[in-house]
Design brief:
By secondary structure, this protein is α/β, with parallel strands linked by helices. The chain is 30% helix and 17% strand. The protein contains 10 helices and 12 strands. Helix 1 packs parallel to helix 2 (79-87), helix 2 packs parallel to helix 3 and helix 6 (175-185) packs across helix 7 (211-221). Bound molecules: S-adenosylmethionine. The site of S-adenosylmethionine (SAM) has 20 residues, from strand 3, strand 5 and helix 10.
Length: 333
């Protein structure tokens, strides 16, 4: 029985994010502002059989949560098939199979995702105003994303999390409106600090709205109470509404309040590279190992050795910080 995955700082690795594609139909300015051509040619992308096999090994190594992401993961036509295959690992120790999506394809496909075995969904929604949504995402489809949220609810993909990246001068004045949205629709609203992961490398600290400010803006309208849960390796600080209203608030503050010490995550890019941190500047080709015909034991050794190289923390706040070459859309958010 191989040992469970631990890095050299004794952090247990339990959480795998799998990017299904580096392609995206949105052009969010904080991620893929110029709509670059995808880096990975089709033959470099992992097939669904390779993803299934890799995840099987990861689950054997103690991965409990798999989140499918991208790019826009629903641009991959075989996503239901991938979910169906991965859902079978719940017999082997997988406890949570989740998806992060921009919501565009959900109106017609939320039900089929649920039927394939998806447990949970996170939908990105950066503004409740049509003009701001369009400026931030590059596409004029707010209504369709709203329909997607409704469809996910209808399909029973519960709980629904909504992600909003808050960027100075764009949507910080909507923070309390988002909280009202969480109350009205009984969803978990998660606010994310803007990170230096934009392909244009135009991130500036001045554009970051801190988690502290986000909380203050919410509490001006809706007092919050911290949720009495062990944070563990969770990325967000979680709150309920003090007046008992439905919905939940999560604040993800990797820039101003890093949580690397409890990180349990690794990532697999659409072209089969393992990344041990969102901000890694090196990648490790699991794809080459898989395609070289390595035996399962060799694949396990490879993954275990890569995990040992996981960085102690990110270096965003250090003077010499170098942003990763690939944007969030390639890494898999
Ligand atoms: N296309 C899907 C979506 O829109 O949710 C999944 C991929 S997207 C890269 C995953 C998450 O990363 C989204 O919630 C997005 O807002 C977030 N994200 C992308 N770039 C970011 C950045 N520079 N800072 C903070 N969050 C970012």
């Amino acid at each position: 029985m191989p040992g469970l995955l631990k890095d050299s700082y004794n952090r247990a690795i339990r959480d795998l994010r799998v990017s299904l594609t580096d392609r995206c139909n949105f052009r969010c300015f904080y991620c893929l502002p110029h709509g670059e051509a995808p880096i990975a040619p089709k033959e470099a992308m992992l097939s669904y059989e390779e993803i299934e096999y890799a995840c099987d090994v990861f689950v054997e190594l103690g991965i409990e949560k798999i989140r499918l992401t991208g790019g826009e993961p629903m641009m991959r036509r075989d996503i239901e098939q991938i979910i169906f295959k991965l859902a079978r690992f719940k017999d082997k120790g997988l406890t949570d199979l989740a998806l992060t999506t921009n919501g565009y394809f959900l109106p017609h496909r939320a039900q089929s995702l649920k039927e394939a075995g998806l447990d949970r969904i996170t939908i990105s929604l950066d503004s409740l105003r049509r003009d701001v949504f369009k400026t931030m995402t590059g596409v004029d489809v707010l209504d369709r994303v709203m329909e997607g949220i409704a469809a996910a609810k209808q399909a029973g993909l519960d709980p629904i999390k909504i992600n909003a990246v808050i960027v100075r001068g764009h949507n910080e004045d909507e923070v309390a409106d988002f909280a009202a949205f969480a109350r009205e629709h009984d969803v978990k609203m998660r606010f994310i600090e803007f990170m230096p992961l934009d392909s244009g490398h135009e991130w500036s600290r001045a554009d970051v709205v801190s988690g502290r400010e986000i909380r203050r803006r919410i509490e001006e309208r809706f007092p919050l109470a911290p949720l009495q849960v062990q944070r563990g390796s969770e990325t967000s600080s979680r709150y309920r509404f003090a007046d008992g209203a439905p919905g939940e608030i999560g604040i993800i503050a990797p820039v101003t309040e890093p949580f690397c010490g409890a990180c349990s995550r690794i990532r697999l890019t659409a072209d089969g590279q393992i990344r041990t941190c969102l901000f890694s500047t090196v990648e490790h080709s699991l794809r080459d190992v898989l395609r070289d015909g390595a035996a399962r034991a060799e694949i396990i050794d490879f993954i275990a050795s890569v995990v040992m190289k996981k960085e102690p923390r990110h270096f965003i706040n250090d003077p010499g910080f170098v942003a990763p070459a690939r944007s969030m859309s390639f890494i898999g958010g």
